[in-house]
Amino acid sequence: MPPSLTSSRPHRERESIKLSETIHRFRPSKSFSNISPGAEITSLDFDDRGELCIASADDETLQLYDCISGRHQKTLFSKKYGCHLAKFTHSSSNIIYASTKGDDTIRYLSLHDNSYIRYFKGHRRLVNSLEVSPVDDQFISCSADDTVRLWDLKSSNCHGLLNLPSPSLAAFDPSGIIFAVASQASSSIMLYDLRNYDKAPFTTFTITDDAFLSAYSYPPRMPQWSKLEFSNDGKLMLLGTRGHSHYVIDSFAENTSKFLYRVLRPRGFTLPEKEGKETSGSVCFTPDGRYIVGGQGERGVAIWDTNKQPDEKKSLLPSWDLVENVRTQASVVAFNHKTNLLATAYKEAVFWLPEQHAPDPPQSPQR
């Protein structure tokens, strides 16, 4: 049996926001064009209070937005080292982010005075996943150097090291006791107890989908994995990809060789990407855990309702497509865990809010 998921209360509390009456009424409310022409936003994150949003872009800037006033607050530059996967710590004035040039150091930055608090050195290739614990100052990083490292903000030295096939993705469960590592090279998701991370994973899920994918490519090939996330109750995991399908996994499943079901984007869909460029993910759970939100490039945003039953092929189609007035592609998505605010990004950042009198969008056809 997995370790307990309820022995501590997360600091970054995932409050239950009732979205069943509003999720299909989200519309673009404010867009921000603060990055250089031709540049792309590669990550989005909200602070613990849901008041700020940080975006990293491949023009080597960090963009800070005020979610309360709906305004751009400041631009910070990281021209010497580049920046990617910017994440708030439990302080709204501090972030960590991965370097993209010069070295592969993780940097701990004060947004207040744009000064570095600490450097976390050890990775020898690009960091492609960075996640902060929901309960304390620990964080986890994955790199193309085939390592997963555990850190504490108070020390420059990593206190845990795993050697796993790369590339990898990582995620903490809501209690901060369990962390998951996804390795596409081995087609697996491994669950670890943080208190015994140096031991073998207590559960390993094998994720393969050859029968379905054979209809899209030959030989059947899983799309590039891009996001790993737990639902707010820890019972489900969401494995996002850059292709037309994402995967939902039962965290407590006894049959670890199968996923629960896949959620589908339009046939043949592929997100825009630059060679070698990762994002923080184009899909995520809503804070109540019921819905999955995913960017669809020029087709806007799709909403999947996990309360609905997948079809006989283990596929779940979108319940709604939110495409009205969308002027930009959505290759990165993040949902504010404190308020009814959705953020998407590609060449600009867009805040979405529910409009009370917005007409219902047409439901996606059940193909």
From TrEMBL:
* GO molecular function list: chromatin binding
Q: Where in the cell is it found?
A: Nucleus
Q: What is its main location?
A: nucleus
- Entry keyword set: Nucleus, Repeat, WD repeat
Q: Which Gene3D superfamilies match?
A: YVTN repeat-like/Quinoprotein amine dehydrogenase (2.130.10.10)
WD repeat residue numbers? 120-155
The record's annotation in InterPro entries points to: Swd2/WDR82 (IPR037867), WD40/YVTN_repeat-like_dom_sf (IPR015943), WD40_repeat_dom_sf (IPR036322), WD40_rpt (IPR001680)
Q: Which Pfam families match?
A: WD40
Its Gene Ontology cellular component terms are:
Set1C/COMPASS complex
For biological process, the GO terms are:
RNA metabolic process
Which family does the entry's similarity section mention? Belongs to the WD repeat SWD2 family.
Name of the protein this chain belongs to: Similar to Uncharacterized WD repeat-containing protein C824.04 acc. no. Q9UT39
Species of origin reads Pyronema omphalodes (strain CBS 100304) (Pyronema confluens)
